[in-house]
Structure formats: C-alpha cells, structure tokens
User: Fold Chitinase from Paractinoplanes toevensis.
Amino acid sequence: MWKMVGVTPMLGQNDDGRIYDQADARQLVTFAQGRHLGMLSFWELGRDKNACTGAFYMCTNIAQQPYEFSKIFATYSG
Assistant:
C-alpha cells in the first residue's frame, strides 16, 4: 500500500504560518525510505533555490542554503 502513497510538503514557511524545515525534510526522507513510498517530492523548486525572505512563491522564509532541500530529498531512493 505504501507504494501508492506520494508526499509533497511545502518548504519553509507555509501559508498557515507553520514551518517545514530541513530537520522535517530529513525525518520525512527517513520515513519514506522505511516505507518505500511511491513518490516523494516538494513544493516548489523555485522556493528551494532562493535563500530569501519575501513572497511565498519565491522564498522559503527560513535560513537555508540554495537547493538545500533538493539535496536532502535527493537521498531518497524509494
């Protein structure tokens, strides 16, 4: 059943004020590897490349290196 599950969190600060940070991403990758999820992704690459504060479509609004979440998620092997 887990192979039919896909997870796509929103990086950094979310519209509801919650924060999805790098520790959360590492925890999700560990969970996904243990369950062999069918898909693991995030919303959205443009946010990951911009280590900035500002509009949600451009920035995570948390401290990060450019593409830091991409590097974390890239460790997922299914």
Remarks:
- The chain has a mean pLDDT of 94.
- The helical segments are 22-35, 45-49, 68-73.
- The two ends are 14 Å apart (CA to CA).
- The longest strand covers residues 6-7.
